[in-house]
Write a structure and sequence with these properties.
This protein is an alpha+beta fold and 472 residues long. It has helices spanning 4-51, 71-74, 158-193, 195-207, 225-271, 277-286, 288-309, 321-329, 333-338, 357-374, 432-442, 466-471, and strands at residues 55-57, 60-62, 80-86, 91-94, 114-120, 126-138, 147-155, 317-320, 342-346, 352-355, 380-388, 391-398, 446-451, 457-464. The radius of gyration is 52 Å and the shape is rod-shaped.
Length: 472
């Protein structure tokens, strides 16, 4: 795994080196251009001075620059090169340094034009040359044919080359020292900047299995604040999840302990002495109730687990909500008679929704069981179906609520009940509303729970009507 520290250091050094290289190239080229421009200007002035001394006299051209103080062009020990010739190729003058030869690689120019270029001496040396083409002037009041002269002055760039070589070495040396200093400085800065990460890693390592702790850092860099905040939020969520898991395990143990204890005591009593076949039959029949409770708990937990994992396949189709409620009522009708509850129905002839009939029936049955089991003895249950804003709603109400309004949200948790003493018998194990809420959410509906302590407890399902779904 690549180190952030190494990546930052290498990246910073590479960027610094590239920036310095570009700056060095700019300095080198700028210095070279300036030196060459100075040489061109000096050669141009000398060549124009030479040209000013050239005169046309009748059928010949006379040169007068021998009187000028230009030893670099007039002596064999000079360091300059000068040549003049007519357009027909007649050589007017060659400096002794050309040794009888001519400069080559010269550009073709027009009259009164000045050219700056690199040329070659007869022995192949590279020189900087300035060329001009001009018409030799006649003496005053003299006439004659025009003479066009091309003149070239050149010099070797030895001093320029020496200076540029020294500048190149200097830039390389400065670049190397600058790169080394930048690398050392950046290493210290990056190490100091990343030290909070080491502190954070140490605190995370110290957490180990204790998710109740939080990461506390004094002065956190601005870039690390989101990381620390998200990490603490993650720890809070993990702590909450572990707490729910512990509570869930305790709730399962509590809910299963009573029916299992009932089963064990019944079996132990049955086996304590020999009994008749009828006694054994009666005893076995008495064990069916705790067995049904355990089965119901396990089945609902499996449904919740499968819903959480998204393993329930939903098969949507048009469903008559009225028929589904009527069919789901049959299993709880006995509880209504036993507890002497009155039932009020308010159902239309039909109310169609698009949903999974099996899952929706399970959710409705759980809410009906909750209403008939928790209504006060001799109280009432009211079931109504209506339509609101293009949605069909099912409302199930029971009297005698012992749940305060602020405790309604708790009922949607697993094993939550309004009976905080947890001494209720029968099917009251606190999974019905949690399972119903999960199913309704999976079916893209909404479930609203309302309660008034000592008054009514209501659950309202809302699903988009089949007609609205068809329009969409």
């Amino acid at each position: 795994m690549r180190s952030i520290r190494t990546s930052l250091l290498v990246g910073a050094v590479v960027v610094t080196a590239c920036a310095f290289a570009l700056a060095s190239i700019a300095i080198y080229r700028g210095a070279k251009s300036t030196l060459i421009a100075d040489v061109d200007e000096e050669l141009g002035e000398e060549l124009r001075l030479v040209a000013s001394t050239v005169r046309a006299q009748g059928a010949t051209v006379q040169l007068g620059f021998e009187d000028l103080d230009m030893p670099e062009y007039t002596t064999a020990r000079g360091d300059g090169f000068l040549q003049l010739w007519l357009e027909d190729g007649t050589v007017l003058y060659r400096s002794p340094t050309l040794a009888g030869g001519m400069l080559t690689d010269l550009p073709v120019i027009q009259t009164d034009q000045t050219s700056f270029a690199w040329a070659r001496t007869p022995d192949g040396r590279r020189v900087r040359a300035v060329s001009i083409r001009f018409e030799a002037r006649h003496e005053a009041n003299a006439t004659g044919r025009p003479f066009f002269v091309q003149a070239v002055a050149a010099c070797e760039p030895e001093e320029i080359d020496v200076f540029l070589d020294r500048l190149k070495i200097l830039l390389l040396a400065v670049g190397a020292l600058t790169g080394l200093a930048a690398a050392l400085t950046l290493a210290v800065v990056i190490r100091s900047s990343l030290r909070p990460l080491d502190v954070l890693a140490g605190q995370i390592e110290g957490l180990r299995d204790d998710v109740s702790s939080r990461v506390h850092m004094g002065r956190v860099p601005r870039e690390m604040e989101p990381i620390v905040q998200q990490l603490n939020q993650l720890l809070a969520r993990l702590e909450s999840a572990f707490q729910r898991e512990r509570t869930f395990s305790a709730d399962i143990a509590h809910e299963l302990r009573t029916p299992i204890a009932d089963l064990r005591s019944t079996v132990e009593v049955m086996l304590s002495r020999p009994r008749s076949a009828d006694d054994y039959r009666d005893t076995l029949e008495s064990t069916l109730d705790p067995i049904r409770r355990v089965q119901a708990i396990v089945e609902r937990l499996l449904y919740l687990g499968r819903l959480d994992a998204g393993q329930i396949e939903i098969e949507e189709q048009p469903v008559d909500l009225c028929e589904l409620v009527t069919a789901s009522w049959q299993p709880v009708a006995g509880t209504v008679q036993r507890r002497r509850l009155s039932v009020e129905w308010d159902l239309p002839s039909a109310a169609h929704v698009v949903s999974d009939p099996l899952l929706l029936a399970l959710a409705i049955r759980n809410v009906l069981e909750n209403a008939t089991n928790y209504a006060n003895e001799g109280g009432y249950v009211r079931i109504s179906i209506g339509a609101t804003n293009g949605a069909n709603t099912l409302r199930i109400v029971n009297s005698g609520s012992n749940v305060a309004p602020e405790a309604v949200g708790m009922l949607l948790r697993r094993f939550a009940r309004g009976d905080v003493s947890r001494t209720a018998k029968g099917e009251h194990f606190g999974l019905g509303l949690a399972l119903a809420a999960k199913i309704v959410s999976a079916l893209h509906g909404t479930m609203d729970v309302q309660s008034r302590l000592g008054g009514e407890f209501s659950v309202t399902f809302s699903f988009e009507s089949a007609r609205e779904r068809a329009v969409v």
